[in-house]
């Protein structure tokens, strides 16, 4: 339904919030919270590494629309277009740079026999799947939702999305390495685990959110670094 609407959009160099945050792309709303569609359906079921964020922000949403419209206008298949969206829009910019730096310090690249974990984001690499606890972009009072105030697990509209979209998606995987970015994602995964809603995977708890706005990420990373390295080292036996 949403993709049929997207196909009618004109390709632009940049879209405004007024052009995309409109009722025809609205999935659900409650009080000040609004959830909008963005083309993030692609699931790489061959992946052994799953990176989980909280929710796509406006920048990722805007780029995903530009990418899928461009790819479809180039007569690419829908599956190919959605795959390209994930490759180009997931944790783009400085966040990806910070993420790669930390993953390389944990020597995940060596475990996967890569020069750098930056290679995971290449279209030709099938080892990575990226997703979010809340699959589609969430806005609170018109701004990017940051994962707290309100919390995911205590907010019906958000938890409904976790159960409806995230749980079936993440349960495509078994024996994978799941990397939750930040405390809100970690809290959600722990609740899902405690309620036995998840398959058996190795969850790398303690990994900080790689956003440049997260000033605590260096301290958190250093305090958990050795234990995370050990977990990755043990995990490689099973892959």
TrEMBL record:
Domain of life of the source: Bacteria
Record-linked InterPro entries: Uracil-DNA_glycosylase-like_sf (IPR036895)
Name of the protein this chain belongs to: Uracil DNA glycosylase superfamily protein
UniProt source species: Kordia antarctica
Source lineage: Bacteria, Pseudomonadati, Bacteroidota, Flavobacteriia, Flavobacteriales
